[in-house]
Amino acid sequence: MDFPIFHIDFIGNRMLIAVDAILHVIINHALAVGALPVIALLEFSGIRTKDPRWDRLAYRLLKVIFIITTTVGALTGVGIWFSASLINPAAIGSLIRVFFWGWFVEWIVFVAEVSLIMAYFLSWQSSGRTPEAKLKHLRLGIFLAIFSWITMAIIVAILGFMMDPGNWMSERTLISGVLNPMYFPQLAFRTTLAMVMGGITMICLTYLFTRNDLPFRTTVLRAISSWSGIWMLALIIASVWYYQVIPQHMLANIPVAVTTQEYVSWNSSLKWLLTIGLSFVGWVLWSSIRHPGQVHGAKYLASVLLLFAMLGQFERVREFIRKPFIIGNYMYANGIRVEDYPLLQRDGILQHATYAGIREVTADNKVAAGREVFEQTCTRCHTVNGINSIRGQLKTMYGDKPWQPEVIAAYIENMHGARYFMPPFPGNKAELDALCVYLASQQKRATAFNGAQTNGIPKPDKISASTVYGTLPNLANPHGEQQ
Amino acid sequence: MTAPIPRDIPLPLPAPEGLLEILLIAAFLVHILFVHLMIGGSMFSLVCQIRGLKTPDYEKLAYRIMQTVTVNKSLAVVMGVAPLLIINTLYTPQFYASSALIGDMWMAVIPLVTLAFLLAYAHKFWWNHFLNIPELHIGIAALETVLFLVIPLIFMTNVNLMLFPEYWPKVTGFFSAMLLPNVLLRYLHFVSATVLFSSLFFVWWTGRKTFRIEVQFSELRVIDVRRFFYAFAFGATIFQILTGLMVFVSLPAQGMSWEFTVLLMLGGLVVLPAIWWMWQNLTRPGHLLDDNFKQILTCFACAAIVMGIARHDYRENALEDHKAAIAEKTINYQAAVKEASEEAQLAAIKAKETDITLPGATAFNQNCAACHHATLPTVGPALEEINAIYANDPAGIVAWTKSPGKKRPDSMKMPGFPQLSDAELMMISQYMLSH
User: Fold this and answer.
1) Quick check: B404 and B416 in contact, CB under 8 A?
2) Cβ contact, residue pair B365, A414, below 8 Å
3) Would the pLDDT of A389 be above 50?
4) From its phi and psi, is residue A35 left (phi > 0), alpha (psi between -120 and 50) or beta?
5) Cα separation of B194 and B156, whole Å?
6) Chain B neighbours among A 334-373 (CB < 8 Å)?
7) Model pLDDT, residue B387
8) What is the residue extent of each domain of chain A?
């Protein structure tokens, strides 16, 4: 990857983006995409029944949605971008080149969404009380719900693309990237899941807000539960469809994805947990439709938390099963293109890394050169000492026996075969040896590992400041001077 | 001083460069307008709250101003997405490099903005709760304003750093990048623009017919409030010109050109009539604050547009050579990639022709060799040891592999290999035992 390497060794780069992204997706699904239709439904019920309690409740719920989505929701969305560009600039930079217009349209829809939520919320109390005025106001809510869904529909195209670029690999056009094989199933899955999550989250808040008006609570809870129940059925169908289009080799990764390597055997029990969790949510909804006044608030809260946990787990699995790639078959998780491998394995990765401080591995610089190789090839996912640390991994494998560089090298050389989700090692033999000397040196006393945001970058040497490559002619500027 | 020359992403730009540049300038101007209104609103609300301690009408004004902040802040964020996207696209090697070099503060933008926004809502929605606790009431406004003022400094540091690749090797962390020449002066210039544009906005906003009804002053006259903002707008304009000159003098030479200088002068000249009108309206009896207001706004809008273009011009000048070198390096790198990949393909074909390895060897190396070394006990037991256990029993190895257990307390459990067929497993086992 030809960028200065940002690295945080404590929580790790993966975890930084995961925390931000999962928070964002939970807010997006539960409070925007899934909740806004419920608000519009409640406002409509208020107009239909002429009972002002519906309207008051809808406004209170919308206030919560407004505050959270326009602060944490919006900023964690921008945060995905910030963190992605720090952690894997090669990947996000490539995706932007392909999906620029997708993102640009997304931005326009996003502007509409933000304008609509402000118009819908801020004009709620001043929009007049007549049914005609209310219907006009309701129209804002319906548009808002639609635009909120469209923003998700666009971003799902990009997520699907990262798993399986489909025809883009040969055609390289925006539309072939959007219509990747994963698109419609994943969109159906997310839409239905968001509706269920949004419904139950609104049920929870309604339970809280109507504690002084139990008859009304019963009526509202029945209405939202029926709405969510219908989406629950659709969710089951969509999940099956989605599961069926995930490529086989990715499914093989699932056992590792759902937990960690050590707990592979928990996979089947986790499947049961998921089934039991969803059944629990279904059961709560069912009893809430039949006897809405008698379901305890704790059960609703448990359902919401279960769904949040499941969505988080789903995102984790989705991110994991596309490994070893970050963009399917095009770029590995380490930010190196599949196409670059022969060159880097021939010349060595340090020869081509503009921001590396060492170019050649010598007998004296093995630990320092190994650290550079580690920085270039491992740090996008691993830390030295933090989460998913390389020390932890080696300890699992070799315990307290002295770690031997040649043994580690024998493993890393063939690692991609034994652990499909790990990319092949991208450097040459000398670099592999140096890396393993460095790794072994970390057993007893780990040295602090800082990224470019602390250490800066080395002074440019001849390779870094030059525009030509080895013995090749300067194709870009055939008659120009050699630098 | 030399600059590092990285490679670009080897995918074509999604649109002609000129179109992206026009979009960038336009989208950035819209974004920065709402940023000014957001920060300026927060500052003025704070000032009015403090004045409200003596004159309660200012307290009412502060509350009204705060209501514009929560709207403008949402627009500021959403309008920022487009310029961020285009900067990412047009200046990928530069922008990501400078972002990484100040990475922790750059990432801190997200929680800082979130916190500032939540404080702004708490401030607005709980206004009446806090009214009787002036320390908290003013404290929350002050904290929010300080946060709003810190965030642009981080942005300023990054967009300045990306312009000067020669400085990158000297930078270690955010503060060293912030102290590069010109950043703090540019920041000062930015803050005075914030005061200028937000006070102009509030002159208009307090002049609307409905404002009188909304705010319901008991003693203060709307005209006094408007004069208050007008005076700020005038003062900020003068300050803006002074800081602008200082920025110009201190700009590093890399991006200087005559075109840029002429653009800056043009931008400055457009403002002069506005200054004249504003001075007249403030000092001459018989002049109203609304006199020539549209013309004044037009002057400032033109100046902002010209400055936006000049700013982009400077960036293009500063990065021209770096961009050209990167393009050259990218083409040459791609040629090297192609050469090496053809070489590797030829070698693979040759290796296949002369392949004398035993059946099973390739599959063993791909799937098993990582953990099973010939002689050393590594992750799993060594081949020597396995051979001793399963001598003449390849089916035993197959059976174990199909449902592996955990025999050794100090080793990890072996994973299953569902992707391998029985025949392949048998071949591998025979190879292992023959080895």
Assistant:
1) yes
2) yes
3) yes
4) alpha
5) 14
6) 337, 339-340, 342-343, 345-347, 352, 354-355
7) 87
8) 13-332, 338-466
Provide, as residue numbers in chain B, all residues whose Cβ is less than 8 Å from the Cβ of A93.
9, 88, 92, 96
Which residues on chain B are in Cβ contact (under 8 Å) with A5?
A: 100
Count CB atoms within 10 A of the CB of residue A91: 25
Answer whether residue B88 shows pLDDT above 60: yes
Residue A30 confidence (pLDDT): 95
Average pLDDT over chain B, rounded to whole?
Answer: 92
Q: How far apart are the CA of B327 and the nearest CA of chain A, in angstroms?
A: 8
Interchain pair B75, A114: CB under 8 A: yes
In chain B, residues with a C-beta closer than 8 Å to the C-beta of A1 are none
Looking at residue B16, its amino acid is: P
The rounded distance, in Å, linking the Cα atoms of A151 and A157 is 10
B335 to chain A, closest Cα gap in Å: 8
Measured between CA atoms, the residue of chain A closest to residue B329 is: A467
Give the closest of B74, B107, B121 to A83, CB-based. B107
- Are residues B85 and A100 in contact, defined by beta-carbon separation less than 8 angstroms? yes
Q: Is the pLDDT of residue B364 over 90?
A: no
User: Which segment of A93-97, A393-397, B251-255, B370-374 scores lowest on mean pLDDT?
Assistant: B370-374
**To the nearest whole angstrom, how far is the Cα of A400 from the nearest Cα of chain B?**
9
Q: Tell whether the model's pLDDT for residue A270 goes beyond 60.
A: no
Preferred mutation among B107, B125, B339, B383 to probe A, highest tally of A CBs within 10 A: B107
pLDDT tens, A309-321? 888 878 877 777 7
Q: How confident is the model at residue A266 (pLDDT cuts 50, 70, 90)?
A: very low
Under an 8 A CB cutoff, do B328 and A474 touch?
yes
Residues of B in contact with A460 (CB under 8 A): 2-5, 169
A483: pLDDT confidence band, cut at 50, 70 and 90? very low
User: Which chain A residues are closer than 8 Å to B340 by Cβ?
Assistant: 342-343, 346-347
Least confident interval from A255-264, B9-18, B296-305: A255-264
Burial class (CB in 10 A: 0-12, 13-18, 19+), B424: middle
Q: Range with the lowest mean pLDDT among A152-166, A320-334, B147-161?
A: A152-166
Tens-digit pLDDT profile for residues B150-174: 999 999 999 999 999 999 999 999 9
**Residue A388, H or E segment:** none
